[in-house]
Write a structure and sequence with these properties.
With 320 residues, the protein is mainly β. The chain contains two helices and 23 strands. The radius of gyration is 18 Å and the shape is globular.
Amino acid sequence: MTHLPRLASLIVAAGLAACAPETAKLPSAPVAAGPGIAVTAQAVPLNPDAPGQSAIGAFRYAGGLALSAESTARFHGLSDLVVSEDGALTAISDEGDLIEGRLVFADGRLSGLADVRLAPLPGLDGQPLQNKAQSDAEGLAILPNGDRLVSFERDHRIWLYPADGSPPRPAPTPEADFPANGGLEALGADPQSAPDAYIAGGEDSGQTWTCRVSAGCTAAYLVEKPADYGLVALRRLPQDRTAYLLRAWDPLRGNRIVLTIRGPAGEIARMEMERPLTIDNFEGVDFVPREDGGYRLYLLADDNFQSSQRTLLLAFDWTP
């Protein structure tokens, strides 16, 4: 989602230019995308005002990066991610690109992103998606068989991208009226229910649906949230737990997020972030199991192709 309306984004960027974090300059012209993209990873503290802060409640900071790539004009707008247990990262952008890479660690902490590849998502005809209405990819899920599901807004739909690389096909999509820029932001695989199961969520409404590729979608949990927050990501966890990421923004307080993890008996854990913590337009989340029974949590920020914002990737360790 383009979180800031274009006019508001320009006004805020001008007003806050003096205090905005330094970011890489955008190329003056489009640069070809493809394999071998060099990504610069600058380490960021959890709290610039208190560099010694190492946790937010039960969530211990495990490193964070500001990512940029001067070799392509398209490494921006990253809106969701999936991280595998071996550190492979898959992400999508709200301009219709697929990004793949490998996370790099130093002493167990997140330290870089290597082997990055970027390619346009194809349409049903196998050709790259052509315009914003068609290419605004927001949610990503990977099924156990390797098939990828991508949710789009503006033209609200979910497509299945087969693991064999063949052209996508439509997947069951919730039947609901979504605002043009507030649709199916949240998407996550649900292998506990079935190999082809997934959950989708509406940003503005907070309504979620349980779906199956072989069946359809049924209304499920309604996420309780303040009116100024949107549901931007979700992930299913073992023991019937689900993580929900809510995000808000206004010109006075800036970006704010609330991550809640719920189980059958209610809320299990909560993490809230706002200034002065290192924060931007976070709208992607994923959890990777650890050997000790906990999880490595990743948060991804969409920079909206704005030089006043950053592509942030933060890591936290959490044990239920």
